[in-house]
Amino acid sequence: MTNWINTVSRDHVERGVRGRFTQANHGKPHMLRKMARGDWLVFYSPRTVFPDGPPLQAFTAIGQIADDAPYQVEMAEGFTPWRRNVDFLECIDVPIRPLIDELNFIEDKSRWGFKFRFGVFRIDDHDLEVIRSAMVRHGQVRATVD
């Protein structure tokens, strides 16, 4: 099993949670093809709204890949992005800043935002557990977005 982070604005994350899917890298299939059923996927939202909404800098959703292969959907004429189905956990948004020192994937703590420029990337089990425990802790949950 592999753990992933997908960098997506919160408004797009909420759309995915409602529809139980994820897209990546502006609808391209490359990284989605690397994911397997059961892989964990954490969503990091640098902004509330794409492309120029207010900064958020928080983990905003978490779930597991629930299918075996990417598929395409037609969202608009000429735009058919690739998706994967995701079973989302109920969770709360968690700001990244209090977690930076604990996260292994952030090698240079002074330039912590650099890694997110890749869009989708792998993280180790330790980092997944740090993030997951923060998102589902204390019995506080955010119900699936309506």
What do these coordinates show?
- With 146 residues, this protein is an alpha+beta fold.
- The chain has a single domain, classed as ph1033 like domains (ph1033 like fold, Roll).
- Helix content is 18%, strand content 28%.
- The protein contains three helices and eight strands, in the order E-H-E-H-E-E-E-E-E-E-H.
- Strands 1, 2, 3, 4, 5, 6, 7 and 8 form an eight-stranded mixed sheet that branches.
- Strand 3 and strand 4 form a beta hairpin.
- The radius of gyration is 14 Å and the shape is globular.
- The N and C termini lie far apart (30 Å).
- The relative contact order is 0.23.
Brief descriptors of the model:
single chain, 146 residues, alpha+beta, ph1033 like fold, 8-stranded mixed sheet, 3 helices, 8 strands, 18% helix, 28% strand, globular
Describe the protein's topology.
Elements: E1 3-7, H1 10-19, E2 21-22, H2 30-34, E3 40-47, E4 55-65, E5 71-72, E6 82-88, E7 94-95, E8 120-123, H3 125-135
Parallel strand pairs: 1-3
Antiparallel strand pairs: 1-8, 2-6, 3-4, 4-6, 4-7, 5-6
Number of alpha- plus pi-helical segments:
3
DSSP, total strands? 8
The CATH topology is what?
Answer: ph1033 like fold
CATH class assignment: Alpha Beta
Give the rounded overall mean pLDDT: 92
Anisotropy-based shape: globular
Largest sheet properties: 8 strands, mixed
The CATH homologous superfamily: ph1033 like domains
N-to-C order of helices and strands = EHEHEEEEEEH
